[in-house]
Design brief:
The protein is of the alpha+beta class. It has helices spanning 5-12, 16-22, 38-53, 95-99, 134-141, 165-170, 210-220, 252-259, 272-281; strands spanning 26-32, 69-71, 80-87, 102-110, 112-114, 123-126, 146-150, 159-160, 163-164, 181-194, 197-204, 225-235, 238-239, 244-245. Strands 1, 2, 3, 4, 7, 10, 11, 12, 13 and 14 form a 10-stranded mixed β-sheet that branches. The chain has a two-stranded antiparallel ribbon with strand order 5-6. Helix 2 (16-22) runs antiparallel to helix 3. The longest helix has 16 residues, at 38-53. It starts with a helix and ends in a 9-residue tail after the last helix. InterPro entries: PsdUridine_synth_cat_dom_sf (IPR020103), PsdUridine_synth_N (IPR002501), tRNA_psdUridine_synth_TruB (IPR014780).
């Protein structure tokens, strides 16, 4: 990017789309497909918005970001679904997304375990599962509702000495499991059962790992299990069906329309001129991925 952030803002100030983009503040949701990390999806969104506004992409060495944007809770790269995004002053509201309730639909596979606890990892164990009935599974689920203790997966965004556990694992370094911690499951129901697969609807609080849940269910059934597919269907007030914007709707107008319902949640805003200055001077929210 040629010139300082202030110079670039001056160059694009005359364009209505740039001014409109820099005035956006609030929370909205996008659809994260299976494959990319949450950070990669966020970067793609940011690139599309800057391109539409005619704002040059910041250089790699630039410490200042023109557009302030971040997400409110990592979704595994192998998972799909709702990813809540904060833009402008809305980034200050993302903390509530981390601790708020979430809903997932998970397809588990009995009889096989992996090091990542999902379909992307290496198989570490195989056990019989033919003896397990639908009644057995429904009975076991009751043990995982309410306030429970859960051990986070080794492949996660949790850190040791400032580095993610998943990164350390990929480097082949020895990693000890984090101690069990309290988490909350508000609802857990079996939607489909056909060995070796089963489908769960899960509503949980912050810090909960569906991968660990499925693994623990397998152990309770004297077998083992992993997540085959995972979709986040709700995060906070944002649902997959009603709010998640697919990539073809990642436009300034579509996002502005999506922001309208949460305008009342935004702190009292300064003047537009001051808001643009904040956007130019503050760095984008950092995002972690599992």
């Amino acid at each position: 990017m040629a010139g300082t952030v202030s110079e670039v803002l001056g160059q694009v100030a005359a364009t209505g789309s740039a001014a409109r983009l820099l005035s956006l503040s609030g929370l909205f949701a996008v659809y994260k497909p299976k494959g990319p990390t949450s950070a990669e999806v966020l970067n793609r969104l940011k690139e599309k918005l800057l391109a539409e506004a005619g704002i040059p992409k910041p250089g790699k060495k630039s410490k200042k970001q023109i557009l302030k944007i971040g997400h409110g809770g990592t979704l595994d790269s192998a998972a799909a679904g709702v990813l809540v995004v904060g833009i402008g002053r809305g980034t200050k509201m993302l903390g509530s997304m981390l601790s708020g309730s979430k809903k997932y639909t998970a397809v588990g596979e009995l009889g096989r375990a992996t090091d990542t606890l999902d379909a992307t990892g290496k198989v570490t164990e195989e056990k019989p599962y033919d003896q397990i009935t639908k009644g057995d599974l429904e009975s076991v689920l009751q043990k995982f509702v309410g306030s429970i203790m859960q051990v986070p997966p080794l492949y996660s965004a949790l850190k040791k000495d400032g580095e993610r556990l998943s990164t350390l694992m990929k480097k082949g370094k020895a990693v000890e499991a984090k101690p069990a911690r309290p988490v909350t499951v508000y609802g857990l129901s079996l939607q489909h059962f056909q060995l070796p697969l089963f489908t769960l609807d899960v509503e949980c609080g912050g810090g909960f790992y569906v991968r660990s849940l499925v693994s623990d269910i397998g152990k309770e059934l004297s077998s083992c299990a992993k997540v085959q597919e995972l979709t986040r269907t709700k995060q906070g007030a944002f649902t997959l069906e009603e709010h998640a914007l697919h990539e073809d709707k990642w436009t300034i107008d579509e996002i502005a329309q999506s922001l309208e319902p949460c305008v009342s949640l935004i702190p009292t805003e300064p003047s537009l001129k001051k808001l643009k200055t904040e956007h130019a001077e503050e760095c984008a929210v950092s995002c972690e991925d599992k």
